UniProtKB/TrEMBL annotation:
<dbReference type="InterPro" id="IPR037151">
    <property type="entry name" value="AlkB-like_sf"/>
</dbReference>
<keyword id="KW-0560">Oxidoreductase</keyword>
<dbReference type="InterPro" id="IPR027450">
    <property type="entry name" value="AlkB-like"/>
</dbReference>
<keyword id="KW-0810">Translation regulation</keyword>
<dbReference type="InterPro" id="IPR004574">
    <property type="entry name" value="Alkb"/>
</dbReference>
<feature type="binding site">
    <location>
        <position position="214"/>
    </location>
    <ligand>
        <name>Fe cation</name>
    </ligand>
</feature>
<feature type="compositionally biased region" description="Basic and acidic residues">
    <location>
        <begin position="358"/>
        <end position="367"/>
    </location>
</feature>
<dbReference type="GO" id="GO:1990983">
    <property type="term" value="P:regulation of translational initiation by tRNA modification"/>
</dbReference>
<keyword id="KW-0479">Metal-binding</keyword>
<keyword id="KW-0805">Transcription regulation</keyword>
<keyword id="KW-0234">DNA repair</keyword>
<keyword id="KW-0227">DNA damage</keyword>
<dbReference type="Pfam" id="PF13532">
    <property type="entry name" value="2OG-FeII_Oxy_2"/>
</dbReference>
<feature type="binding site">
    <location>
        <position position="268"/>
    </location>
    <ligand>
        <name>Fe cation</name>
    </ligand>
</feature>
<dbReference type="GO" id="GO:0141137">
    <property type="term" value="P:positive regulation of gene expression, epigenetic"/>
</dbReference>
<keyword id="KW-0539">Nucleus</keyword>
<comment type="subunit">
    <text>Monomer. Interacts with DNAJB6.</text>
</comment>
Amino acid sequence: MAAPVEDAFRRLFKLYKRKQPLVELSGVLDFSRLEVNGSGAKVHPAKLSHSSVSDQDIQSAGLQPISKWKAYGLENYPGFIFISNPFLPGCQHHWVKQCLKLYPQKPNVCNLDMHMASEETSDLWGKSQEQLRHKGSRKKESRSLLEKLRWVTLGYHYNWNTKSYSSDHHSLFPTDLAVLSQHVAAACGFSHFKAEAGILNYYYFDSSLGIHVDESELDFSQPLLSFSFGHSAIFLLGGLKREETPLPMFIHSGDIMVMSGISRLVHHAVPRILPCPDGSALPYCLTLSLSEGFPIGSSIIDLCSKEDWDVCASYLCESRINMTIRQVLGAGQTFSTQPKQETYPCKDCEGSQQQDSEDTKKLTDSS
């Protein structure tokens, strides 16, 4: 009996996940260098709604005025928008700190809850900060609890076993992250977006994210927002069908992806996390401080103290953090109403997506 034919997505995923021999990366789309290198892909400027959010409000979330954003679309991916690091200098620090210090706190849920008592996971930051501050000072040292973190869920908590959300598994969504998400969504034409659920993924150099489709939400008319901080990654953007060859692209610290319409339901994956090509411990944008005169008092951005940032920087030396934010329910919708296929963005999408039985959207570490 002949072995099953390996699909194009799986082949490319395995290629970019491979560490040895070294993989040629010249074919990976880099939005941050379009003006220097150009692109073989059909990239075009994305249309943004410059008047949807005032400069003052957008700055309060740590972002440049929308008119200054470098936002791109792809010809074969309607609804996909890539925004190349629109964050103001130093403002990424706030979001990194939140992902490590605040968002993992209870009642939010994390992977460590599955095999540790609640009192052991109640303050991951407090239990890890000293160890991270002195990381590398000993020849042999165990990983801190923060370094064992793989995912955190916010708002409606995603159930990894049933691949679903429910009304009885919910906590308040962080206000600052809701504001950031709503501003970005509005700038991309989704003024009624509600941040109702979030999955934070914590990557390390040996981590990958399997091929999957985000299809557990009950409303697909609103976008999926993705925010990245830390080391760069290779992201594979596929099609509605698993066998379609994906487009590889770099995601750098501060980059934002917005997936809506048809692109809301395409297969995607992260096969590899990359160290800085120049050997630096952190990407340059993470070494910048807040500009003098940044309006801390009228902003949702908190000043990240040197002590806190030292812990964050130590963590990020070998890591990447990704926040994916989504709206779960449509207007007037509840968890007991219409089946999901009735809220697909177009009739051609209905019933076309099946979660691959081999891959999940959980993070995996190479053995």
